[in-house]
Amino acid sequence: MNLFYVPEISAESREITLSEDESKHACRVLRLRTGDKVILLDGRGGTYTAEIIEDHPKHCTLHILDYQFEEMPAKEIHVAIAPTKNNERIEWFLEKATELGITEVTLLLCGNSERKQIKEDRFEKILVSAMKQSQRKYLPKLHPLTPFKTFISEHPKGALAHCYDGEKSLLQDVFQASGYPLLIGPEGDFTPEEVALAQQSGYDSISLGKNRLRTETAGLYACMIAVMH
Amino acid sequence: MNLFYVPEISAESREITLSEDESKHACRVLRLRTGDKVILLDGRGGTYTAEIIEDHPKHCTLHILDYQFEEMPAKEIHVAIAPTKNNERIEWFLEKATELGITEVTLLLCGNSERKQIKEDRFEKILVSAMKQSQRKYLPKLHPLTPFKTFISEHPKGALAHCYDGEKSLLQDVFQASGYPLLIGPEGDFTPEEVALAQQSGYDSISLGKNRLRTETAGLYACMIAVMH
Fold first, then answer.
1. B37 - beta bridge partners?
2. In terms of CB atoms within 10 Å, which of A124, A182, B17, B56 comes out highest?
3. Quick check: B221 contacting A, CB < 8 Å?
4. Which domain, by its residues, includes A147?
5. How many domains does chain B fold into?
């Protein structure tokens, strides 16, 4: 059955009208008709079975037949990552990380960041599409581009992956299931000042193994380790 | 320093001439000149420091100054994967898997494969570029598109990821460091006949967790688990 993301729906809803975009997608692109059934997701654990009662391409209206709720995953997987210079690469990270079960993403603005602007709307769409494709029930929370210092002051501990020498832990040995964001730097790495600031605050310096990984691969690898531990 | 992949070089080489393509890249694109030093990789563990003695854009010639050898990784990571319908997706898999340390890739032709042809030359180029980018010393071995049955007869055991019901192991619990390819099916999954054939031969059915993953994400996830175990 076709899936639609409808953030405004709730367990009490009996009837819902899709947005203009989604109505067009349902009635023009997918050619759904009155009487057809679809699945609605609210991105907060709820799955709704619904039947189209008006197949209007601008305000497609549905009657809700059934509601199921899935508990939020106990494990918080929050990756804070500097967007890559090449935008496609970070978009792939967002897609893959959603499939794997990331719960929160922050885009970090670092001293060495080459990309200082992001298209938040587009990133949100990628998360929604990956959520639907992988049949997840929770939409990862996307935070806006955040300066490194601000992030550290809001999240005093976590793990920071960097390439400087010094003592490092393996992420699998130090990962914690909540309040423990995983920080991945830009192509030119975090600056020594950023590493020092994070360490002073209480961050673990981590290694992601001996291979040199691109930013988005490092992000995904960190995410996979968190999923498994 | 700039890196070049020169498969024909060996520990005995004293002088080497780059291919026409690589010569053009060195002398026209990178504007390297006689006296400049570069790194050559043979993709079989050897790293060579070399000095340009003739900066000709069609036959750039180098004198080899130094040779270092890195032992082959003890762990064999062989992913056999059905190429995705969307070619970009499998190309990303090849790039990321190389960064992570895959040692062998086979492209599988399955009953449900939508893509029945691959551009082997292009795939090889992606592996070379990812090897250089991630400073690995071994080029993953790329096998041509292989029918599923042929693959099973040549590799009688390994792990097969599929979405059918039945008893499954976690890859991390059954992975073996040699002679144990990881098989990832096409968008429509392996056919029941393929699953049965593999199981009869001695394959473990594996699960990659509860999330539904795209082909290329499943391949990369399997590869990451193998890297870590």
1. B51
2. A182
3. yes
4. 78-228
5. 2
In whole angstroms, what is the distance from residue A119 CA to residue A115 CA?
A: 11
Model confidence pLDDT, tens digit, residues B155-167: 999 999 999 999 9
Q: Is this prediction's ipTM beyond 0.85?
A: no
Distance CA A102, CA A136 (A): 10
Task: Give the global pTM.
Answer: 0.82
DSSP class per residue in A85-126? SSHHHHHHHHHHHHHHT--EEEEEE-TT-S-----HHHHHHH
Q: How far is A205 from chain B (nearest CA, A)?
A: 19
Phi, psi (rounded to 5 degrees) for B181: -70, 150
Out of B99, B212, B221, whose CB is closest to A214? B99
Residue-level pLDDT at B190? 96
Is B95 found in the same domain as B19?
no
- Compute CA A219 distance to the chain's CA centroid, rounded to the nearest angstrom: 12
Mean pLDDT of the B99-126 span: 94
Q: Phi/psi at B151 (nearest 5 deg)?
A: -60, -45
Q: Are residue B224 and residue B165 in the same domain, yes or no?
A: yes
Residues of chain A numbered 52-111 and touching chain B (CB < 8 Å): 92, 96, 99-101
Measured between beta carbons, the chain B residues lying within 8 angstroms of A134 are 211-214
User: Is B172 or A209 the better-scoring residue by pLDDT?
Assistant: B172
